[in-house]
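Continuing the series of single-chain predictions for the mutant panel. This is the parent chain; the variants come on the following pages.
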Amino acid sequence: MPRPDCPDAVLFDFDGTLCNTEVENIRLVQRVLRQMGAEVSREELEVLTGGEDRVMVPPILERHHVAGTIDDYERLRDDCYRTYAEAPLVMEPGAVELLDGLRERGIKVGLVSMTVSRCILTALARLGVLSRFDVIVCGDMVESRKPAPDPYLRAAELLGVDPAACVAVEDSPTGIASARAAGCYVIAYTGCDIVQDVSAADEVIDSFV
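Parent structure:
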């Protein structure tokens, strides 16, 4: 897919793209699983990054002979809210400057996340960047989450732009699939601690600086 010479909008994923939350989320999941009686390594839990917990977690519970259910896990995890409300979050180096530079050039900026709005809005407010986005679409704002195209299509609709004139910045195969299905040009970001398979992206970068 050709890269737009001057995109109408750049749409960013949040977790693992603008902010290195994935490691903090894994630490939280480790604590939750420990409460449930299982000691699980970070390496085993990296499979959860960018995926749906209700699909990925039950096999982990089964492998570690945990008596609790996925419902028990989700109740204890509380949508990872503690990560976004309490963890020492920082934006990736150069990310704030990039957002400001795009808006100064008249390019709209959106955030498209699979995480629920309660978490994302809390994190953005703590980071002081909420006002830098022209639109925010979270996982609980669409009928079908990533990898379905719905989140990116919704963001483009709200911005009044053609998805083909948008650039998406993602870090996971799930997010890349969503953006590509919507018709966006996709740049993969690999600057955070957990690097996933981004081979389906149109372009790969490891820094916003």
